[in-house]
TrEMBL record:
The gene is ruvA. This is Holliday junction branch migration complex subunit RuvA. The RuvA-RuvB-RuvC complex processes Holliday junction (HJ) DNA during genetic recombination and DNA repair, while the RuvA-RuvB complex plays an important role in the rescue of blocked DNA replication forks via replication fork reversal (RFR). RuvA specifically binds to HJ cruciform DNA, conferring on it an open structure. The RuvB hexamer acts as an ATP-dependent pump, pulling dsDNA into and through the RuvAB complex. HJ branch migration allows RuvC to scan DNA until it finds its consensus sequence, where it cleaves and resolves the cruciform DNA. It comes from Gracilibacillus kekensis. Residues 72-91, 107-126 form the Helix-hairpin-helix DNA-binding motif class domain. Coiled coil: none annotated.
Amino acid sequence: MIAYIQGEVSEITDQAVILDVNGLGYEVICPNPFRFQADVGQKQKIYTYHYVREDAQILYGFQNQDEKSLFSKILNVSGIGPKGALAVLATTSVQDFVVAIEQEDEKFLTSFPGVGKKTARQMILDLKGKLPFDYPEDNLFIENKSTAKDNQALLEAVEALRALGYSDREINQIKPALAKEQSDTADTYIRKGLSLLMK
């Protein structure tokens, strides 16, 4: 098993990061390769999951161990393959997903590409109480009092902030403040997010 690869980020594609390690280029499929855009030409460590099947060997890559661990856990859910697990991690953060599972938030889970009610239910059955992550309640993106509509608006706002070039680390720092807005429109969260990020 290849635990991680450390090398120079030589290229970013729609699906992968190409890491140059002593002249050997590793193609690493990532949830959101453009997170590494600022690292092109620089040395970077990417945590990897080596997926092996009869007709292919694929390296999936992640920014940290938590993302990699969650990817492997989601793969254990009946009916979900690597593409589905990757889509989840491309759309949300580890802590948001954990809370959705623990709170059995099917509405949140079905917002992921390719996840219907049946698959969301299966995720909850297979993963609830089994995810090895511990996040303080006051730092969680989804709160018990949040509505499904609020969650969707927050998700849309987070994606918009990512598209504007803000990193997950920067966005995660302001999520608790965003969640307190309790708005049902993404525009409100985006405006609040920008004001916090530009401070």
